[in-house]
């Protein structure tokens, strides 16, 4: 029998494939931009083509078509913004805004006692929102959601500074460096916080103690 108390957050939230795939189109944009003589159009075409190929591979491996279409759409929007403004660094504006919005939403969810980490894990495990009736789990999810806020804020600060400086190549590099490696670290820290916050006798994430 699986020890559900020892079941890690990483196991529940899945692998890092999606986050890794998300870093490929920005790298393709930078590479296309450089090889194309700093042509934004060439970079945009390379990013969109990469996004479509990555999406196709993920669908072939059983990924969700709706989620993959959304990721491709975000690449298309980012490329469109860069082409329209004529500034290569503006390809990364969409990501800056999305991370800023995510930081705000996650912070708000903690304040109103609906921490998004609990919502996500609850839906994945099939317990839906029963965890909210467990004071220990609710408290643990609130504390463990703050590392997620921190990762979004870190991305906004780094990407924002590089965007202001017009550092296109560094933006591409840091987009990859702060995607799946940072997400893996965030999951690990959240799991550590959960285990430190929950009482020693708590049965685990899949078993909220409800009245």
From TrEMBL:
Domain of life: Bacteria
Family matches, as InterPro entries: UCP010219
Coiled-coil blocks: none
Parts of the chain that traverse the membrane: 42-60, 67-83, 103-125, 146-166, 172-194
Assigned keywords, A-Z: Membrane, Transmembrane, Transmembrane helix
Keyword Glycoprotein found: no
Keyword Transmembrane assigned: yes
Protein name in UniProt: DUF3159 domain-containing protein
Organism lineage string: Bacteria, Bacillati, Actinomycetota, Actinomycetes, Pseudonocardiales
């Amino acid at each position: 029998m699986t020890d559900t108390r020892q079941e890690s957050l990483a196991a529940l939230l899945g692998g890092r494939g999606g986050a890794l795939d998300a870093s490929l189109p920005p790298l393709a944009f930078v590479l296309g931009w450089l090889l194309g003589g700093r042509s934004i159009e060439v970079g945009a075409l390379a990013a969109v083509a990469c996004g479509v190929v990555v999406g196709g591979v993920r669908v072939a491996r059983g990924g969700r078509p709706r989620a993959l279409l959304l990721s491709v759409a975000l690449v298309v929007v980012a490329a469109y913004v860069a082409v329209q403004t004529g500034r290569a660094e503006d390809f990364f504006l969409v990501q800056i805004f999305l991370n800023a919005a995510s930081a705000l939403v996650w912070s708000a969810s903690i304040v109103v006692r609906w921490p998004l980490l609990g919502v996500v894990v609850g839906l994945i495990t099939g317990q839906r929102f029963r965890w909210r009736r467990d004071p220990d789990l609710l408290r643990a999810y609130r504390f463990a959601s703050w590392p997620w806020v921190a990762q979004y804020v870190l991305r906004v600060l780094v990407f924002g500074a590089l965007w202001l400086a017009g550092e296109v190549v560094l933006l591409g590099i840091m987009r990859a460096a702060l995607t799946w490696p940072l997400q893996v670290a965030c999951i690990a820290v959240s799991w550590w916080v959960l285990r430190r916050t929950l009482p020693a006798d708590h049965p685990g994430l899949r078993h909220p103690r409800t009245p």
